[in-house]
Design brief:
This protein is mostly helical. Helices cover 44% and strands 8% of the residues. It has two domains: 77 residues, no CATH class; 87 residues, no CATH class. The protein has seven helices and three strands, in the order H-E-E-E-H-H-H-H-H-H. It starts with a helix and ends in a 39-residue tail after the last helix.
Length: 223
């Protein structure tokens, strides 16, 4: 029989049916589980969830997918690949520096022009982080139901991509300001590609090896 954490993920992905027999004697009331899964773009992520107890003692009967609750920390872990929200602003500022340096190099910008770009980019960062908080509220509203919360996390993919590259591409304040600077200086309008990012930690396949998107790789000990 599948362990409770594996069963929950398979159910969430539509790869297992609801059990018709007690499946969770191993999952005590209020037990916290940590599982590994893989996003649709192949990135390893960790999910922490709780199997809530029922009033009057331990739960009885099968684990139902709607009973699993996703913990709040899953949001930052999935969006930023981090345990908390303390570092995203610093990383975005570092990405902004790379974008400003690339724009200055390719367009021969002076210090004043580069400062205008940096100011515009800080506006993009503020706007992006506001969007993040709106997404966080959405996740908080949905995480009490496993299927809904897991779907909300999977929907973070495009936002994660913007975070990793920097929210300074087409339609951003940075891009619009660069276009104005180019026009004022009589420079040809050039689209600035995404500057190279700093090296990131390699994702290990883990002892269980590669897994299909959305499948459990392995279960850690409950905590």
């Amino acid at each position: 029989m599948q362990g409770p954490s594996i069963l929950l993920l398979l159910l969430a992905c539509g790869q297992a049916d609801e059990p018709d027999e007690p499946a969770a004697d191993a999952a005590a009331a209020g037990q916290r589980l940590t599982v590994h899964t893989r996003t649709m773009d192949g990135k390893d992520r960790t999910l922490s969830l709780v199997i809530p107890g029922r009033a009057g003692g331990n739960r009885a009967g099968p684990i139902r997918i709607q009973d699993a609750i996703l913990n709040p920390e899953n949001f930052d872990r999935w969006l930023f690949d981090a345990e908390d929200a303390a570092t995203p602003r610093a990383r975005l500022l570092a990405r902004l520096d790379a974008w400003v340096e690339a724009a200055a190099r390719e367009n021969g910008l002076d210090g004043t022009q580069a400062a205008r770009l940096r100011l515009a980019g800080k506006g993009d960062i503020a706007r992006f982080l506001d969007e993040v908080e709106e997404k966080r509220k959405e996740f908080d509203a949905r995480r009490g139901t496993f299927r809904e919360g897991y779907a909300a996390l999977r929907d973070l993919g495009p936002m994660t991509k913007r975070y990793e590259e920097g929210p300074f591409g087409g339609g951003s304040l940075f891009a619009k300001t660069l276009g104005k600077i180019q026009a004022e200086a009589g420079l040809p309008r050039r689209f600035l590609g995404v500057p190279p990012a700093a090296a990131t930690k390699a994702a290990g396949a883990g002892a269980a090896g590669p897994a299909a998107p959305g499948r459990v790789v392995r279960r850690l000990a409950p905590r």
